[in-house]
Amino acid sequence: MPPRKRKAPTEETKIEDEFQVLSCEDIRKELQSLGENPGPIDASNKDIYVRLLARKKLKTVDTDEQPRDVQHDLHAKSAAVAQLASPRPPLRHSLAPEAKRVPMPPKVKPTLAVPSTPPSSAQTVLYFEARGLTAATFTPFTDSGEVNLLMIRQYADYLCQRGVLNVFVNGTAGEGLTLTVSERKLVAEEWVKVAAGRMTVIVQVGCESLKDSCTLAEHAQEIGANAIGVLPSSYHKAPSIVHLVTCLEKVCEAAPSIPLYYYHIPARTGVNFLMEDFLDAAQDRLPTLRGLKYSSPVLFDYGRCVIHSGGRYQILYGCDEQLIGALTLGCTGAIGSTYNFAGKLYNRLLAAFQKGDLETAKLEQRRSQAMVKAHNKYGDPSSVGKAIMKLQGLDVGPPRLPALPLSVENVKSLEKDLRDIGFFDWA
C-alpha cells in the first residue's frame, strides 16, 4: 500500500509554526498589540493563543492587501473562511409526528440533508431545524481554568455514541459569559470542526455588550455554524419588547445569512416578556429569526408560540424535566444540559412518544425528574453536570470561577443519590 501523502500546510499553520518559538510573554504582547486581552498564557494553553495570534496576523495581512469593497463583501469573507473550516450539512431529526413541517423518516434517526452553500449576495438565510435533542454543552477546562480545546473531539464522539447529534455551544451550561470573546471564538471553531458531517452546531453569541454579540454572530456565520442563539443583556436590561427587538436587529445585520434563535431564560436573565408578544413584534423586523430557545416552565406561553404564524417558528424547549408536556404541544426539538449525560434516556422518551406509547414516555420522564431532583440538590448546574460527566467516564474539567467544583464528599453523595434511583442502569 503506497504511503499516505501528507496534507500541504495551510498559510495559517505555517504562521503557527513560526510563532511556536515565541515565549508565552511575547505571544501575550503580540496579541495585546492587535487589540486582544488574553488571560494568563503558559505551556498548558500556549497552542490556543498561538492559533489565535496566527489567525489575527493572517486577517491583518488579508485586510491590508484587499481593496475596500472586497473587505466588506460577505461572500468573499465566507469563501476565505471555508479554507479553514469546510461547511457542514444540517441534520434533520424526527420527533413528534403531529408537529412535522417537512417529510421525515419514520424512525428517530438522524439524516443528512444537502450541504449548505456560502451565502449569496442577496444574503439568503439558510434553512435550519434542530430536530430531536440538542446538548447544551459544558466548556472543557484544564485544572488551571484554561479552555481545553483538545477535549472537544472526544466530547463530540461521546455525544454521538448516545444519539445526541446537535450541540448548543457557549450557553448557560457552557459558562459562556465567563469566557473572553477570543475564547468563545476558539471554542465555537473547534466544535464546528469536530462536528463536520455528523452534528449540527448552534453557537450562543449573546453578551452584556451588544457589540461583542454582533462580533460573535458574524464570526459564527463565517466559520459555518448552523445557527446562533442570542441571550439578552441581563444587567442593562431591555425595558420593553421594542427595545429588545431593536437590539436583536443589530445582531441580524451583523450576521444576515445565519438563522437566529432568541434565548429566553428569564430565571437567569430577569428579562421576562411573553414570548408570543415578542414574536408579534419581531416577525416583521428580524428576517433571520428562526425561533426560540425557550427555557421557561410556562407551557401556556410555549404552546402559543408553537402555533404562532401558522407554525413558522421552531420553539426549542429547554426544561428537560417536563419535556413530555412540550411534546404534547407540538415540540419538534429540545435543548438541555442533562442531554449531555442522559441522551439515551431522552431518546427512548422521544421514540415512545412518537409511537404513541405514552406509558413508556411517562416512565422515562419520571426517571428524568428523579435525576434532575438529585442534580439540583448540589448547587451550580455546571459544577454538578461536570461531576456527573466525570462519573460517566468523560472528564471535562472543573467549572470556572465564580462556580466551584463539588467537594469530594458531595461527589460521593451525588453518586449515591444517582445510584439509588438507578441512574447508571438507565441513563
Rg computed from alpha carbons, rounded to a whole number of angstroms: 22 Å
| Low-pLDDT regions | 66-122
> Helical amount among residues, as a percent range?
40-55%
Beta-strand content: 5-15%
Total E-strand runs:
10
For the sheet with most strands, the description reads:
8 strands, parallel
End-to-end gap? 44 Å
Global geometry: globular
Mean pLDDT: 85
Which structural class is indicated by helix and strand composition?
A: alpha/beta
Element-level helix/strand string? HHHHHEEEHEHEHEHEHHEHEHEHHHHH
Count the helices. How many? 18
Order of strands in the sheet with the most strands? 9-8-7-6-5-4-3-10
Q: Could you provide a short overview of the structure?
A:
The chain is α/β, with parallel strands linked by helices. It has helices spanning 11-19, 24-33, 46-65, 68-71, 74-82, 152-161, 181-195, 210-223, 241-254, 266-269, 275-282, 299-306, 323-328, 343-355, 358-376, 381-391, 408-420, 423-426; strands spanning 91-92, 111-112, 132-136, 166-169, 200-204, 227-230, 260-264, 289-294, 314-317, 333-336.
Question: What report would you give on this structure?
Answer:
The structure is a single chain. With 427 residues, the protein is an alpha/beta fold. Helices cover 45% and strands 10% of the residues. The strands form two sheets. An eight-stranded parallel β-sheet has the order 9-8-7-6-5-4-3-10, covered by helices on one side. Strands 1-2 form a two-stranded antiparallel sheet. The longest helix is centred in the N-terminal third of the chain and has 20 residues. It starts with 10 loop residues before the first helix and ends with a helix. About 13% of the residues have low confidence.
